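Q: I'm building a small set of examples for a reading group on sequence design. Run inverse folding on the following structure and report the sequence directly after it, with nothing in between.
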């Protein structure tokens, strides 16, 4: 997913979910999508449970997480 598409689907607004990254226009946090997928929920189950979510939103959440981790700074102790 290209950067512009990511920016169009994920937003950070201090007035929504305390500033956590969410799918734009919803209160669905990126974190929730990641936790559900890592807990063995399927994409189909997410789409059924959250009708406002699209496959592209799920891909944007994954791309957002990958980008966040890529720029994470690790300090070895």
């Amino acid at each position: 997913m290209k950067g512009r598409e990511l920016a169009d689907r994920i937003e950070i607004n201090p007035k929504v979910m305390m500033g956590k990254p969410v799918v734009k226009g919803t209160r669905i946090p990126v974190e929730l999508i990641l936790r559900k997928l890592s807990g063995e929920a399927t994409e189909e189950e997410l789409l059924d449970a959250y009708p406002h979510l699209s496959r592209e939103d799920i891909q944007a959440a994954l791309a957002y997480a990958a980008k966040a981790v890529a720029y994470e700074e690790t300090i070895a102790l």
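The beta strands are 10-11, 22-23.
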